[in-house]
């Protein structure tokens, strides 16, 4: 953060319109701690404030890592706390929420959790966490894929958008690998594979 103001000024001068800063929180018996929540939130808020001072839109990314055996309810609670700390810090730093985007994780169980959940379970936990923690002033929520397969990332995003209830933000994606991996594999950089690559891309649509 020390020279971020100068870097943001240069980025803006060079034509950039937005920036992204990612802070991660890991779920374990001892983490995240109060200090961990507080520090990641303050870093994100300082970054967002500096971006806006230089005319850049800050994409705020507090990511709860999917590593572990925890159930979806644990991820939901940690995500809700991460959002609460983040928006408290953004308010403390006088960040203009209408000029920001949030890039959170979808709320899922840990990758090693033996219990399996449906896409509707993910949608319910994710939308509930957002409703409890994200102000309506925020214009958009752009999800990270968090190591999901292409199919899961697409189906979970679809379920989130279809989930009933108040969702005052635009809900969309901000990931590439979970959309493009099969496309790149089909293409292999060869002109004769373009049609096959396009067909693979349309499957995700």
UniProtKB/TrEMBL annotation:
Enzyme Commission number = 4.1.2.13
Alphabetical keyword list: Glycolysis, Lyase, Schiff base
Listed under catalytic activity are:
beta-D-fructose 1,6-bisphosphate = D-glyceraldehyde 3-phosphate + dihydroxyacetone phosphate
Gene3D superfamilies (UniProt xref): Aldolase class I (3.20.20.70)
Pathway named in the protein's UniProt entry:
Carbohydrate degradation; glycolysis; D-glyceraldehyde 3-phosphate and glycerone phosphate from D-glucose: step 4/4
* Protein's UniProt keywords contain Lyase: yes
Q: Does the keyword Lyase apply?
A: yes
For biological process, the GO terms are: glycolytic process
Q: Which InterPro entries match?
A: Aldolase_I_AS (IPR029768), Aldolase_TIM (IPR013785), FBA_I (IPR000741)
- Stored PROSITE patterns: ALDOLASE_CLASS_I
Q: Kindly report, in one word, the top-level EC class recorded for this enzyme.
A: lyase
Coiled coil spans: none
Give the molecular function GO annotations. Answer: fructose-bisphosphate aldolase activity
The UniProt family comment states: Belongs to the class I fructose-bisphosphate aldolase family.
Name used for this protein in its record: Fructose-bisphosphate aldolase
Q: What is the lineage of its organism?
A: Eukaryota, Metazoa, Ecdysozoa, Nematoda, Enoplea
């Amino acid at each position: 953060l020390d020279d971020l103001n100068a870097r943001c000024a240069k980025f803006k001068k060079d034509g950039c319109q937005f920036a992204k800063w990612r802070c991660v929180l890991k779920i374990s018996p001892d983490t995240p701690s109060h200090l961990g929540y507080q520090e990641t939130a303050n870093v994100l808020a300082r970054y967002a404030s500096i971006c806006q001072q230089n005319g850049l839109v800050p994409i705020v990314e507090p990511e709860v890592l999917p590593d572990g055996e925890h159930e979806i309810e644990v991820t939901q609670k940690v995500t809700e706390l991460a959002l609460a700390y983040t928006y408290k810090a953004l308010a403390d730093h006088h960040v203009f929420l209408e000029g920001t985007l949030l890039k959170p994780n979808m709320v899922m169980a840990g990758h090693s959790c033996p219990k399996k959940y449906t896409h509707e379970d993910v949608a319910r936990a994710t939308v509930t966490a957002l409703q409890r923690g994200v102000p309506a002033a925020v214009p958009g929520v752009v999800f990270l894929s968090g190591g999901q397969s292409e199919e899961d990332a697409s189906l979970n995003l679809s379920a989130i958008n279809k989930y009933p209830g108040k969702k005052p933000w635009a809900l969309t994606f901000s990931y590439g690998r979970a959309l493009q991996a099969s496309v790149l594999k089909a293409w292999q950089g060869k002109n004769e594979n373009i049609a096959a690559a396009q067909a693979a891309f349309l499957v995700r649509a």
